[in-house]
Amino acid sequence: MLFFPACMQSSLHYLWEYLLQPLFAAAHVRTIVEIGAEHGECTRDLLHYCKIYGGTVHSMDTQEHPGITDLRKEFPDILDFHKGYSLNILPTLQPYDAVIIDGDHNWYTVYNELLLIQRDAQNKEFPLVVLHDVEWPYARRDLYHDPEVIPEYFRHPWKIGGMKPGQVELVESSAFQCNAKHSLYEGTMRNGVLTAVEDFLKENSHITYTNIPGFFGIGILTDQRTLARHVTLQSLLEEWNIPSSVKNHIHCIERARIDALVMQTCIRQEYEKQEYAHRALLKEHLKDATIKYAELKENNEHLSRKNEQQEQQLQEMKQRYDEQLQKLTAANAHYEQTLTRMSQTKSWRWTLWIRLLQKRIRVLLSPQPHTPSTEKESPFTPQLPEQVLPYFPQIAHPTVSIIIPVHNHWKFTFQCLQSIQQCRTHLSYEVIIVDDASTDDTAKNLECIANVTTIKQEKNQGFVAACNRGAAAARGRYLVFLNNDCIVQEGWLDALIGTFHTHPKAGLVGAKLLNADGTLQEAGGAVFTDGNATNIGRGKDPDDPAFSYLREVDYCSGACLSVRKELFMTLGGFDARYAPGYYEDTDLAFQARSVGWKVLYQPLAQVIHYEGISAGRDMQSGMKQFQEVNRKTFMRKWQKELQSPPSTRKAPRILVLDIVTPKYDQDSGSYRMVQLLTQLKTIGMHVTFMAYDYAHNPEYARHLQQLEIDVLHAPYITSLQQHLYEHGKRYDAVWLSRIPVARTHFTTVRRFAPDAKIVFDTVDLHFLRTERGAALTQSTKQHKEAQKLRTDELWLTEHADAVTVVSTSEKDVLQSACPHASFFRISNIHPFHKRHALSPERKDYLFIGDFLHEPNRDAVTHFIESIFPHVKELLPDQKFIVIGKDPPDILRKYEKDGVQLLGHVPTIDDIFHKVTLSIAPLRFGAGVKGKITMSMQYGVPVVTTSIGAEGIPGEHGKDFFVADDPKAFAEAMQTLFRDPLLWKEMSQRSQQIIMKNFSEYAARRELMRMMQHLGLQHLASLRGTPVPTSHQAQGNSPHPTHSTH
Question: 580: pLDDT confidence band, cut at 50, 70 and 90?
Fold first, then answer.
């Protein structure tokens, strides 16, 4: 982290004698406001000046440094120190003659400081204002002391990092102010101190600006009336009108000064870094030695305990042996005595010849020596625990057949089966193992596993034959071919098979293969014109967004590959010409694609694959030797298709940016964005999405990724500027949704992706919505905000290559101001829903909306205060159902009166099928209201206001009811509850309006017209697989992971 001395940062102290003091004296300054006191160097100069001329200093900062504390004691009568933020303190001060602005160097703070100064001046002359840092680095880049105090609307994306002259990107070390919070971007709208000054001057032509280069730049603002009264001040400022050649020379000196400052600090930093590293190394060595000592001590204690245990066991064993020895010795003595007595009897001696004859016969009849029995083990033999075999339930009609070809390697087969059994799934499945003539214990062990179908191959025939034989015996609708050296992860099967349901044209679906160390092995495969294939993303981070979205690929490895059984059998299974293995999975993918099916990579199906276990790695022997042989076979079969393989067919690429990752189930704007992304994908574009704040929202990002959308997010990307610098040429178009996104990123896109067409998606006219809100609340501040929004939206409309609007009325508003802009109506998008008839079960009425959106909060508050009393009188038995997070507190007071607050509801189908009507009592807003079109989508009639009905083609009383008067609103609701024939007619007409104006087809038609306007229609007609990009295929293996068993 670089540290710059305060004297080099707060350099106004060095300009006091030859600039500030003469300036203040010439303007007869007496009362001075200092914004940004820091350590008090400049404050002391101001106090000495005021002590001589008779004046007062108002100094402010967020912290009181010790230097200021000393000055307050030294100058108690003429120094007033104010602790806090300038925008809170300035309105409390009395009139003043001069202001030094050297505080928080960002557009929002400086611009509003100037506005407050202007407001306080009122009809008097604007005071003399001196600004610091109007040149590099803060002329065009914001610095945030505390980002949270800057409203989100005006705060640029930021991070902690330093700057270097001539370099746009922030860096982490060896640069200026590495420990500060800087805007990620430079040169965008409302960014930097000088930009704030320029924006202020546009509205105040009577104020003159003088720029003095050096020491990060000094700017002086003076009222022309002040200059007319003070000739000395005018002459002084004229002296500072430096010729451009001198200014250039000063800029060179300034750059050299900064470079020297950075160099000096870098040297100090490097020294401190090395010293820190040395200390860290010593600390690490000490830590290692301490750990090693602790380990040795623990091992010693463990061995001591073990030795004691063994000693005790030995003593116990010795004692048992001694006891047994005593018993055996006593028994032996007893037997010997008995034998001695027996041998001395007459009968024993007389029968000796019989015993000798029996011994001879036994020898003749038993030529093999007798082996002692081992059934009864020694009591001291250790017992090994048996393996816990996986158990699979018996399924009569499985949905999925998991086919595992095996040849030896029982350990891996066991692990594979165990992982399948341990993963939860709602699918019914059977496991089929094709034992391809294993020579180890595989066959014997498989007999012990219940409900697994085992097919025994008498001769080793290879992967192709084994899979085909397993498929012939399968009973499921879907086949999953799985190598025995795979360990499946939670959710793998649901993800694979679920893809066939969400993507009806999916024929083959492959998994994300991982190496044992957690790195990526394959995210689908690509095939090139020479027939060579590669694993996309090999060795990369598996969580990288590039490998985390569902997409079409050339092929997927047979190590884990799912396929519709009917398709597999129709294609004849794996082609036998590739036996024993390699390229059969690639060939199957090409066959499926040739008859109209898609080959998809599913990142949610994650499988660890111990590559090379089943096939080996030697290219000259074993299974691997067939890789090159089968490549040539593959080339001969698909020669025509390989002239233009799917990987080389380029789809137009569009980058879409919105405020956040759309939460499709929480607000209509997000719902529209998801539908829009889907339709862009449907017309043949490769779609990449990025949120304004780069934040990763796993749940909603995953939803987009499963729609085949590439979602970029932190920590893999933290700067649009950096991303476009590296990949800007990749994009054919960039879609900027909403004005906060567009005004921040427009110039960045133009600069770093100059060939990309820019689409400005208004969503709704923000200035129109804000103007209406200001008129309703009589807010001057809101009115000014609306004016700024109007300026920005019109500028973006004028400069974008295409502009989308949600209604013809908003198009008319923009077109009157920007007649040369190209407009396209892309409104809310709704899929068709079957209408449910009016039944006795239908009751109640509904409001749905996002209550972070101010028009929605105002609407329900207005309804409950002004309309609800009339509704309760006319419809006392009907409940008011409210859907949406964080509704206004006033609604909770009426819960006992029939107001039902459901909060956020993930799925709303059932609710729309049960309510009688939907209301939208909006008093301000803009655009087409999603709550209304969504209700019409379900065939639920709507009662709304003239603001709510705006942009929706329809007629009052036939397609919906429009009422701005509270009593008339309630009466319209009563009419729909009491007239079932009108309800039915309005329900039917509502869905007809949606089909004609807000359907998926309507959106696709307008998007295709836009593509034609942008010159992308020739690309959008293609439906091929996107090219594996550098961030996807970089580091790919030259040797593909085809089916290895």
Answer: confident
- The span from the CA of 186 to the CA of 925, in Å, is 33
Say how far residue 308 (Cα) sits from the centre of its chain.
Answer: 58
Write the CATH number for 58.
3.40.50.150
Helix (H) or strand (E) run with residue 144 in it? strand 143-144
> 31-35 and 56-61: which strand pairing?
parallel
Residues 852 and 761 in one domain: no
278 and 129 in a common domain: no
Between strands 429-436 and 207-212, the pairing is unpaired
Range of the domain at 272: 243-295
H-type alpha helices, 706-845: 720-727, 739-752, 766-777, 780-799, 808-817
Q: Are residues 263 and 214 in the same domain?
A: no
pTM: 0.61
Residues in the chain: 1045
What are the residues facing 609 on neighbouring strands?
486
Which phi and psi (to 5°) does residue 265 adopt?
-70, -35
Residue 698: asked if its preceding bond is cis (omega within 30°), the reply is no
Q: What is the pLDDT of residue 368?
A: 46
Confidence of residue 770 (pLDDT cuts 50, 70, 90): confident
Q: Which residues is 159 bridged to in the sheet? A: 182
- How big is the CA angle at 362 (ends 358 and 368), to the nearest 5 degrees? 165
Please spell the DSSP secondary structure of 908-936, one letter per residue: -HHHHTT-SEEEE--SS--S--HHHHHHH
Q: Do 639 and 744 have their domain in common?
A: no
In a 13 Å sphere around the CA of 611, the CA atoms on its Cβ side amount to 24
Residue 4 in this model has a pLDDT that exceeds 50: no
In a domain, 327, yes or no: no
Domain end, chosen from 648, 680, 709, is at: 648
pLDDT value of position 1023:
38
257 and 196 part of one domain: no
Please give the helix or strand (H or E) that residue 159 lies within, else none. Answer: strand 158-160
Beta strand pairing call for 506-514 and 560-564: antiparallel
CA 765 to chain centre: 27
Q: 780-799 and 766-777 are packed helices; what angle lies between their axes, rounded to 10 degrees?
A: 170
β-strand partners of 764: none
Domain assignment of residue 301, yes or no = no
With left for phi above 0 and alpha for psi between -120 and 50, is residue 572 left, alpha or beta?
A: left
Same domain as 290, residue 173: no
- Spell out the residues 6+ positions from residue 450 whose beta carbon is closer than 8 angstroms to its own: 391, 392, 394
Backbone phi, psi, residue 693, to 5°: -100, 5
Domain count along the chain: 5
| Those residues with Cβ within 8 angstroms of residue 286's Cβ, 6 or more apart along the chain or in another chain | none
Mean of the per-residue pLDDT values for the chain? Answer: 85
The conformation of residue 523, written as its DSSP 8-state character, comes to S
Within 8 A by CB and 6+ apart from 306, the residues are none
The Cα 455–Cα 461 span in angstroms is 13
Alpha-carbon span 546 to 1028, nearest angstrom? 10
Is 308 inside a domain boundary? Answer: no
In a domain, 520, yes or no: yes
Closest to 982 in 3D by CA, of 943, 944, 948: 943
Residues 592 and 509 in one domain: yes
For 525, 584, 597, 634, 1028, the CA distances from 640, given in Å and listed in that order, are: 19, 18, 19, 11, 21
Read off the tokens for 447.
């007999």
- Band the pLDDT of 1026: cuts 50, 70, 90: very low
Same domain, 285 and 169: no
